Each structure stands twice: as C-alpha cells, then as structure tokens.
Amino acid sequence: MTRSHDAVVQDQFGPRAEAYVHSAVHAGGEDLDALEAMARLRAPQKALDLGAGGGHVAYRLAPHSVSVTACDLSADMMAAVAATARQRHLPNIETCIAPAEHLPFDDAAFDFLACRFSAHHWHDFEAGLRQARRVLKPGATAVFIDVVSPGPAAFDTHLQAVELLRDPSHIRNYTAAGWCAALVRAGFHVQTTQARRLRMDYPVWVDRMRTPDTHRAAIRSLQQNASRETADYYGIEPDGSFTLDTLQIEATAA
Predict the structure, then answer these.
(1) Where are the domains of the chain?
(2) The CATH number of 5-149+168-200+241-253 is which of 3.40.190.10, 3.40.50.2000, 3.30.70.600, 3.40.50.150?
(3) What element of type H or E holds 192?
C-alpha cells in the first residue's frame, strides 16, 4: 500500500519521539546557543518553533519569550514535547500538530520564528517558507538551520543517497545558494549566514531512526566505495561516522 509523504514522515518520527527528545546532537550545539542569544536579545512576544521535532528550539526560546508554539506534523512528537515542557517547568510552551505547508495560524501571528533540521523533510519546501513568511509580522526575525548540500554533484549525490537510505522521509538537503534564493522568493530579506560542520556518529545516527539492516549495509557500501574526494570531503571514518555541512540563516520578514 502506498502512503502520502506526510504519512511517511509520521510513521518515521512518531515511534522515535523520545529518541529525538533525548538526542545529544539535537539537544545541543553552537547553533542552538546562537539561536538562544538571538531570542534573548529580541525577547519575542509570540515565537514559533516550526518543525519542532523533539522541541529543543522551543526549550531554548521559552525563557526569553512570552509564549512559544512548537509546531510539528507528528502528534507523538508534540505529545513528547508537551510532557518535556511540563517536566522542565516551561508553562509558556504550547504545541500544534500541522505540516509546515499548511499552518493553522493567522497572518502576522508571530514576531519570531525558528526552524532547525526540519525543512529537508518538507514535501513542498517553498510552500513551507511562504507559510513561515505569512505567519510572521513584517520586520520579524526568522532563523533557519539545516543540513545543506555542498553543491558539487558527486558530493550532493552521496549525501542525498545516504540520507534517503537512512530515512525514507528525507526529501532534499538544499545548497546555501538555494536556501537564500528560496527565502527571497518567499518574502524574506537574508541578513546573515553561518556555515558549520557537524560530525554524525554513525551507530547513533542509524539507531535513532531504526534504519533497517539492508539500508545500513547499503549506506556502508556507498561509503566504502566512495571516491577518495568524496570520502575526504565527508571525513568518512572506519565505523561509518562522517561530517556534514550545516547552515544557519538569519532573515527578516519583508
């Protein structure tokens, strides 16, 4: 039986909600620290964590915001975020179940938006960005953080292939230039970008998504047969661990 993309996403992430709440690579990092510093400076009235996943952005925004809405397609994820917010005594976090492409919020409902490691799962990337712009007040800050493609075809093909084998809800890691162009088309002004490198521990990476053994074998085969240039670029290690590119983009709603 075939499934819609939204159903694939929910099937992938719903059973793994607790794993993402407790995931070390999602719960920390320089990007989260930078994001929290922006929120501290701007002190938003209403902030949106778009594609919230395990809620790590929402937990960082909450101390500096009057209210935070964590929004995600997965009901199980949102239940886990609500429970964690209660445990952490963050009563100003509320949750909403919705896809990025169809947000159930009024125009200009928020004055701060953050989206981290979510957009590469969106069925319609540009529609999600247009929705992000629609729900933001003019002049409001939006921060997008995601894994990005380095651009060259050989590196891009390798990245997309291992991502899809690991997680069938993966759509695409876009390039930095692709991100910036899409944001402009959606009605944003790009202010700053920050590139970083992020090491992925292979056993943790595949275990968190419960990647089937056949797909794990395929990933390792791709890694072991990669060209020297590709292996060097991603720093592929003997156990399959590797390093990829991430990008933080600060933009304002036009």
Answers:
(1) 5-149+168-200+241-253
(2) 3.40.50.150
(3) strand 188-200
Give the pair of three-digit tokens for residue 254: 């036009």
Size of the chain, expressed as the number of residues it contains: 254
**Is residue 187 over pLDDT 70?**
yes
List helix spans (H) across 43-147.
Answer: 56-61, 75-87, 125-134
Average pLDDT along the chain: 93
The stretches of 22-124 forming alpha helices (DSSP H) are 24-27, 30-42, 56-61, 75-87
CB 206 within 8 A of CB 216: yes
pLDDT in tens, 188-225: 999 999 999 999 999 999 999 999 999 999 999 999 99
| Stated pTM of the model | 0.91
